[in-house]
Every structure is written in structure tokens, then in C-alpha cells.
Amino acid sequence: MKKLARGGLTALGLFSPRLAGRIAFELWRRPLARGRVRDAERNVHEAARVEVVDGIVTYAWGDGRRPVLLVHGWRSRASRYAGFITALLELGYSPVSYDGPGHGDTTIGMGTILDHQRIINALAAKHGAFEGIIAHSLGVPFALYAVRQGAPAGRFVSISGFADFGYLIEKFSAELGLRTAVKDRLRREIEARLFDGDPDIWTKFSVGPGDVDLLVIHNDVDKVVDPAQVDVLLTSYGPRARYSAKTGLGHGRILSDPAVITEAVTFLSDVPEGLDLSA
Hints:
Structural class: alpha/beta
Largest sheet: 8 strands, mixed
CATH superfamily of the largest domain: Alpha/Beta hydrolase fold, catalytic domain
Low-confidence stretches: 271-279
Distance between the termini: 41 Å
Number of strands: 8
Mean pLDDT: 90
Helix content: 40-55%
């Protein structure tokens, strides 16, 4: 599929960058595949209290006290956080999550960063201020923007995330070999069709200075989000961010790694150092 799209857009871009940009936009905005609940996640997934709010499937565990929000990434779903949910429940937290538009069990179409902001605010209104937020991949800039705009959170854990909103275009364009003219047209399509023609979205939605403690966890070899984004994230966020480097985990497997789960949950809590939450 990717090779076919790459070849077609390359050829079309030579004759009509505008049309190629429109087609690229349709490919860019759709995940094309939905993440399914894995066997290892099923027990945790089925234990959740499920509620559909304005078409968004939301999940909650625990007794409602000390809520922690979990935000998934592209082509993913809330159940990918099964290991985190188990660890958080053991410490008396109440995990909260959702399947974003076009993902998991949420059947309504694609959403933007602004839709995720509204969802996060609605969950905060229902469950109370989050003691912490854990986000992965695309969920990182989405959730950090919501916090910057006032969503309440005590601490934040970024896993395999990125800071530059334009990285969405750069990564996609590189994978499909888009010419500069087509890439520029794709940018204009996104601005016009999703954000009322606002050309400032690339700055507005990039990560900016933050006022909650941020832990950045990233693998040294990540084929989805370039580890170079770590420096961008740390610099953009400011002095309240710190970095924890990982190796050998890739982009997706990092979410099921016991050491990563322990470190993230410990950062959100007062768990004594050295306590193994994976046991």
C-alpha cells in the first residue's frame, strides 16, 4: 500500500501538486487500520467501566479517586496501557482513558488536536483533576496542548512523543517521498480543511513551555518518532522536563516494558525508589 501510494503520488506530483496534495491529505488524516484488543490486554480491557460520550468510547477503572489520564497514539487504543493500568490500580489510582476518533472502538470519523483537547477537558470535568497524564507518540503533543490550555494535571509522562507539530508532515512526506511542492500543498490542505485556514497551527500546536513536571521516555532507535525529537521536546518545554533514555524497545514495545511502566508510575507517585511494580 505504501509503495503504491508513494509511486502514484510521485508521478502525480510532477503534473499537479495541488491534486497530489489533496490525495496526500486523505491518506494523512486516516489511520487505515484500527488497533484491536490483544490477548494480553483483554482482562484489563473488559474490567473497565465503559461509557460513550458524544461518540467517543471512554474507559475508567478503580474507585474514582486519584484519576490518571492515559492518551494513546496513532493507530492505537486505550487497551495498550494494560500494564500501566494494573500498576496504577495497585497504588490506589483510578486510570481513565479513551479511544480517539477513528481509533479502537470509537466509530466516529477522524479528529484533530482540538477534538482531543475537548475530550480531555470533558474527562477532567467528569473525573476531576488528573494527578498525572501518561501519553504515547501522537498522544503526547495532543495531551500537552490540552494541559497548556488549562486541562488540570499534576505530572506528565511522555513516551516516544514529539514536540514539533510539523513533524507530522515531515515524517509522512519522507515516507511517501513527496516533492516539496506536494508537501507544501499538503500543509495548505490541512490548514484549510481542518483549522479554518490558520497558517499558524504549526507553531500554535507545537509543544511550548510547561509548568508541570515532565518525564520524557524515549528509545534510542525509534523508526516512528525520530529520537532527535527528544532534544526539541526538552528545549521547548523548559526546565521542568527531564529525560530517561531507553534502548532496544522500539516505538510500540516500550509500552509493555515492565521497567518503563515502573519508572512512569513511580514518577507520578510517591512510590519508594526500587519498588518493583511489575511483580
